[in-house]
Amino acid sequence: MVSVRLITINARGLNTPVKRRMALTDARRQGGDVIFLQETHFRADSAPTLSSPHYPSSYVSNYTVSKSRGVAILLGRHVPFVYDSHVTDPGGRFLFLKGTLGLTRCTLVNIYLPNRNQCQSLRTILNKLSRFREGIVICGGDFNVHLDAPGEGNPASCKPDPSLRKRFLQLLHGQQLVDSWRVLHPAGRDFTFFSNAARSYSRLDTFLVSHHGLHLLRSTTIKPITWSDHAPVHLELTLSTVSERDRTWRLNETLLKDTMNRTDIETAITDYFRENLTPDVSLPMVWEAHKCVLRGKLIQIGARLKKFRTGQITDLLRNIYTLETSHKTHGSLDTLKELTLQRATLNDLLTHNTLRSLQITKLKYYTQGDRCGRLLANAVRMATYIPKIRCADGSVAHLTPDISTAFLSYYKTLYNLSDTPPPSKVIDQYLRDSYNSTISEETKEALDTPFTMEELASAVKSMKSGKSPGPDGFTMGYYKTFLSSLGPHFLQAFNSLADHSTIPQSALLATITLIPKPDKDHTLVPNYRPISLINTDVKLFAKLLATRLNPLLPTLIHPDQSGFVTSREARDNTIRTINLIHRAQVQGRPAIFLSVDAEKAFDRVDWHYLFGVLRHMGFGSKWMTWLQALYSSPTAQIRVNGTHSTPFGIRNGTRQGCPLSPLLFVLALEPFMQRIRDNDNIQGFCLPFHHYKISAYADDILFTLTDPLKSLPHVLKELRTFQTLSNFLINDTKCEAMGVGVTSETNRALTDICPFQWTRNSLRYLGTTLTRCPRDLFAANYTPLLNTTLHELRKWHKPHISWLGRINYLKMTVLPKFLYVFQAVPVRIPRAYFQELKSGFLKFIWGSTCPRYHIKI
């Protein structure tokens, strides 16, 4: 159960950037989740952007004639609102927005009524609303009608038209809409607008709520008038179907830019380790506890700075509230003068802060906005909110707790596949029969030497800043800033693991974030890629291990495996396969090309098998102890829509997000690939320097087999054997096989042997389409890429990105796709292709206007 705060306010014009920034900043300061704005004063044909990172979704209804009227609804980025449809008004008087808030079907309405003929205008709006509304109606707005009778709160100086109010309430009664403030304050007296001309207060702004939705009301309050001439009205709804977001701490790296803060933190680090390094406490425990102490120190510094920055505003708001309450009661001119002075002081302060914020933003976007960096990447990043998911029993979950439970059940099963691991003797025998290469004694000794400060400094330098931290909240910036103070203690703690110390369980907790796979059904749990956010110190230690391991891979892993091995690329496999397909056609030999889809390959690796492979390859005891410390008792929690599941244990898999993960996987796969190469019953393409049977890029495996009726059954047998030892599992329905020179009779026999998807003319592998006929490679790969790219460029609309930013957008997101295809499928490309590509790029860069520069390709 969680409360959602809605705010309505008449903004009195938002045409200047300062006013827009001030409104958005104040809405966030007040904790608004959904914001209703009236009098935005945007013209329909030249409306500025009304959004921010905190309010990314905005719906506006602007006047088509002039810069007046106008209403808008802003949705916070964490609001669980699923959009359905909306209706705007050419007159800029109303906006209807329909959707689902949590599981509650609702219609959000924003209304700004004229100063005259209010009831006539409201009747027209409500008639349109009656045909559109669905579920609970929540209507915020400035109605320009005195909502209170004289006996209910209007001051004596205010003489509202009783007939107007009566007709207004009758219209609301006909639609079963209720004034939420009056319902919760039946005897209350408060106002939202002060008329300087009439020297009177009135309540013109409120939230109207459907009568059958009153049980959701938690509170309705009127706040002081500050930067606008109307007071904001807050409405809090209690939604039992919405889960409260989990608050997680993350280091604010701007604190580290201040010299005094850095000095305080460095002193705290030095004092902590001087006072707590005792023989009776293990070094890893001392290291883990230091993060708790420093987290408290950083929170203290952040709170002090926040209090300093907001203290003046808080004091002014408190004074304004006191003076406004007094003036509403007594109407003193002296109080009004003081109140006006306090409001002017607050507006000056807010304007100053807003101008400074805008200046910083402009500088940031001027220096970084058009570069191939984080700002430009954020502009094109997709939202990852999950509105619904299909559970294992076929039902559809809409609530975040139910969605989280569905993911938790799936991954808890995935990361705990077997209670009875395969016997060590069976694994050892399999490895003895499969793999013979081992590392030398000199290499083993080098791997086992303690890590040095030079290695740590190199690892820290190679790690990118700005990445999401693990559950402890410490970012890479913390370790880069205080490396000289932290480095020796880090090395002592993690080097001591070789002496059978253990990493505290809290350090091995990871947060799993879910990235939707492209072109998949995102209502299915398996169609999300789990990325483990590991604590930065643990990731640094894994980076140290990976740095030592990486140079050994070319000697331990056959060239058939091109994934994550130095000087090998995916194009090695695609070019080889294209040549083998052509060779099969030229020779007229029956052959099949089988692309295997491994199901969650990284997440299924059995640890007993993995450690057996590493021991068989000759890795030393210390290096193995360091590695096993990372896999001693890892746990994970799943983050879904801002909430975290309960932590669960992990007993298999290599974490996607760990620097060691891909290296360990290719090592674990190598014995299987060697068995395929050594199996005489499996026939491939025999060339002078190599017998080509299998190739792989990490878990993307391709078999190139001749004599398919004999070879394929033995491949399936090897796959089943490997599965029993390592948990490796292929998804038969997603595997693709293409026959070349295979008769229809042989093809039917092969179909009976295995239920793969048998294709006639093409095969998908490593993001490319490999065709039976080489002449079809261009049409199968280059033409779809061009069409898709041009379609995406036509849809992409970011008006704040300059032409230079658009060029960098092409460099960052579009060109890599073309460069990969150019390398992976090297065929002759006609000149017309580049001309069409150039035309699409120029239209995108110059916004479909005439290019100012002519470039020849």
TrEMBL record:
InterPro entries xrefs: DNA/RNA_pol_sf (IPR043502), Endo/exonu/phosph_ase_sf (IPR036691), Endo/exonuclease/phosphatase (IPR005135), RT_dom (IPR000477)
Pfam families with a match to the protein in the record: Exo_endo_phos, RVT_1
CDD domains referenced in this protein's UniProt entry, alphabetically: L1-EN, RT_nLTR_like
GO molecular function: catalytic activity
Record-linked PROSITE patterns: RT_POL (PS50878)
Occurrences of domain Reverse transcriptase (ranges): 496-770
Coiled-coil annotated residue ranges, if any: none
Name assigned to this protein: Reverse transcriptase domain-containing protein
Provenance organism: Leptobrachium leishanense
Lineage, uppermost ranks: Eukaryota, Metazoa, Chordata, Craniata, Vertebrata
